[in-house]
Amino acid sequence: MAGNTVVLMIVVGYLFFLIGIGIYSSKKIGDSEDFLVAGRRLGPFLIAGTLAATEIGGGSSLGVVEKAYGDWGFSALWYVATMGVTFTIIAMVAPMLRRAMVKTIPEFFRKRYDKPSALFTSLIMILPLIGLTAVQFIASGVILSVIMDWDYTTSVIVISCVVIIYSMLGGLWSVSLTDFTQMLMIVFGMLAVVPFSLDLVGGWDVVVANTSSERLSLTQGIGMPTIVSLVLIYAASFICGQEVTQRLYAAKNGRTALVGSLLTAVVFFAFAMIPAALGIIARTMVDLGMIDGSAITENGARYALPTLAVQVMPPVLVGLLFAGISSATMSSASSDLLGAGSIFANDIYKVYINPDADQATLLKVARLTILAIGIFSIAVAVMNTGAIISILMFSFSLRAGGTLVPYLFGHYYQKGSRQGTWVSLVLGTLGILAVKYEWVNFFGLDGIFLGLLLSAMGYFLFSYLYPNTKPIADYRVEQPEESVADPEPVNQHTTKHS
């Protein structure tokens, strides 16, 4: 009982601490640029912390332990390590993306191509962000209900309200600071389990001696095709994901965006081994009868980490671990909420509803949007309706298949035109739908492969046939830091047509 009280106090205290960060961050918000891109003043360490925390969710923590405990073995580390590969790739284009001086991806489409393509992009980006938020609320609720022994609905509401409050208060400032804290909690919490479990089992040599060579292999369980697919899917999704690019837009300059991305990759490579090792250790201890694995048998391998932690660690560290696991899902949810609120305020409300809106109005709209989407996501999470979540999550593939090519190449491909962009958006979307609904079988691959191929073909062919003739900014030249307060348009005809 005393141990449960300690865990409860740590977790609840941590939730209040996050709200405190939101209140502190709110004092830094003067206008919508402060709220949406933190005044473009984030340094490399904050960028690395917030990017890593954003992408390390329940799947990258509990999920990897589950997979390592099961069939994937130690090769489950690639689920996270491929994110490290992805952010190494992103580092190569990060300075280019930063130079655009926009706040959202749809804003880039509006300034580089046209308003209709920006609206289309806004819609297919907001939907998956809502779905991702709901999924993270579900994961957070499950975790908190296990930790606190609360009912599921109460757990969802409590943890979701905390995320909504600090996201509304401080925008990207708040999310970045909480993400940095949450990243430390995730890494420290899970790392703390390792020495206690190894001490009890008798060392890593004992684990190796009682684990098959197949389960210790770095590639055999997951397989190379899955590793390659994860890199491509992550790269396509992250480069054109508002929750990622918003951090790059908030960097002090292009070099900071590059260094921050590389540091993020290092974090992923280092972190990947921790949950994979814990899954292997937990399986060994259950097989040897050193810990009670009944909860895992009854509820599945997703309970491997909580089961291991509760039985080998003191209550204080268990509390820190559970706070860290909650952090993994909360940080992802806050980033998704902020991304959706940013797009609605900056690219729908400002452009189509109230073009004369001042900074104070945009700030209010962004906060109200976060609140509205947060409440809707809570409702979806409480109902836990698989059909709704499936629809929202499917649009996650749509945004990558249609928008990646015109977004990425639009930064430097002079001939890239609005005609090519529209063909790219349509063909990329159709390619993903074709595989999703089994109209075609593209070598058994995920729909994003066909979508990206058709999108690229359409973009370059129609941009060649109908080339853009208006000048675009020269992204080979780094924007000086003092220009941050007076951002340059993405191209020279932006002001007139957007």
Automatic annotation (TrEMBL):
<keyword id="KW-0472">Membrane</keyword>
<feature type="transmembrane region" description="Helical">
    <location>
        <begin position="303"/>
        <end position="325"/>
    </location>
</feature>
<feature type="transmembrane region" description="Helical">
    <location>
        <begin position="76"/>
        <end position="97"/>
    </location>
</feature>
<feature type="transmembrane region" description="Helical">
    <location>
        <begin position="262"/>
        <end position="283"/>
    </location>
</feature>
<feature type="transmembrane region" description="Helical">
    <location>
        <begin position="222"/>
        <end position="241"/>
    </location>
</feature>
<keyword id="KW-0769">Symport</keyword>
<feature type="transmembrane region" description="Helical">
    <location>
        <begin position="421"/>
        <end position="437"/>
    </location>
</feature>
<feature type="transmembrane region" description="Helical">
    <location>
        <begin position="443"/>
        <end position="466"/>
    </location>
</feature>
<dbReference type="Pfam" id="PF00474">
    <property type="entry name" value="SSF"/>
</dbReference>
<feature type="transmembrane region" description="Helical">
    <location>
        <begin position="154"/>
        <end position="176"/>
    </location>
</feature>
<feature type="transmembrane region" description="Helical">
    <location>
        <begin position="388"/>
        <end position="409"/>
    </location>
</feature>
<feature type="transmembrane region" description="Helical">
    <location>
        <begin position="6"/>
        <end position="24"/>
    </location>
</feature>
<dbReference type="InterPro" id="IPR050277">
    <property type="entry name" value="Sodium:Solute_Symporter"/>
</dbReference>
<dbReference type="InterPro" id="IPR001734">
    <property type="entry name" value="Na/solute_symporter"/>
</dbReference>
<feature type="transmembrane region" description="Helical">
    <location>
        <begin position="183"/>
        <end position="202"/>
    </location>
</feature>
<feature type="transmembrane region" description="Helical">
    <location>
        <begin position="45"/>
        <end position="64"/>
    </location>
</feature>
<dbReference type="GO" id="GO:0015293">
    <property type="term" value="F:symporter activity"/>
</dbReference>
<dbReference type="InterPro" id="IPR038377">
    <property type="entry name" value="Na/Glc_symporter_sf"/>
</dbReference>
<keyword id="KW-0813">Transport</keyword>
<feature type="transmembrane region" description="Helical">
    <location>
        <begin position="365"/>
        <end position="382"/>
    </location>
</feature>
<protein>
    <submittedName>
        <fullName>Putative sodium:solute symport protein</fullName>
    </submittedName>
</protein>
<feature type="transmembrane region" description="Helical">
    <location>
        <begin position="118"/>
        <end position="148"/>
    </location>
</feature>
<comment type="similarity">
    <text>Belongs to the sodium:solute symporter (SSF) (TC 2.A.21) family.</text>
</comment>
<keyword id="KW-1133">Transmembrane helix</keyword>
<keyword id="KW-0812">Transmembrane</keyword>
<dbReference type="GO" id="GO:0005886">
    <property type="term" value="C:plasma membrane"/>
</dbReference>
